[in-house]
């Protein structure tokens, strides 16, 4: 794989921990040049890694990051992985509108702006892979996750339409919907609720970082140029 990836760059949002950091490390080991993006820094020293400390809710900071990427001398931008996301598991009747706005700012608006700016660079090379994160909470209509699921549902709808808009530039846009994975995102969710979700899946286990990376690699592959506007939910529903 290194022969195919050594002249390609990928951006990963939410790169400082959890799934994002794992994806960064795996991409580096595969030979990609990787740009990381997160509010905090990352404990990673690699010659093919460049970190941007950016607030994903700040459009100006995101646009400035992409200007920097466009003007540097690293390999051409090939992949955009919109992993950054937040959740607030709460009953709708108890959900402050400020929290709703913040969830959509991070999950949907951040994904939209990064996808928009990445595609502006990718179109110059007539190839690109945009991967957006959703969740199985969308098709499962889980109680207590209505706002989180709504923000991810918006990402799914956007991704399918955006895939058509950028297809003429050789850019694909696809979606991955993880099942419960043991990260900070679900650390405050009761075990009983998590087990109930697992039992509703066809494959009755927690997802892993490796499961995520398997789908990411599939979407990034140069031979996946006929795969666009698609979504894969882990675990089977």
List keywords for this structure.
seven-stranded parallel sheet; alpha/beta; 7 strands; 43% helix; single chain; 237 residues
Description of the molecule:
The chain is globular, with a radius of gyration of 17 Å. It has a 7-stranded parallel beta sheet with strand order 3-2-1-4-5-6-7, with helices on both faces. The protein has 237 residues and is of the alpha/beta class. It contains 8 helices and 7 strands. Helix 2 (18-30) packs across helix 8 (209-220) and helix 3 runs parallel beside helix 4 (97-122). Helices cover 43% and strands 16% of the residues. The mean pLDDT is 94. Helix 4 links the parallel strand 4 (77-82) and strand 5. The protein has helices at 2-5, 18-30, 59-71, 97-122, 137-140, 146-166, 191-200, 209-220; strands at residues 9-13, 33-38, 49-53, 77-82, 128-133, 171-177, 231-233.
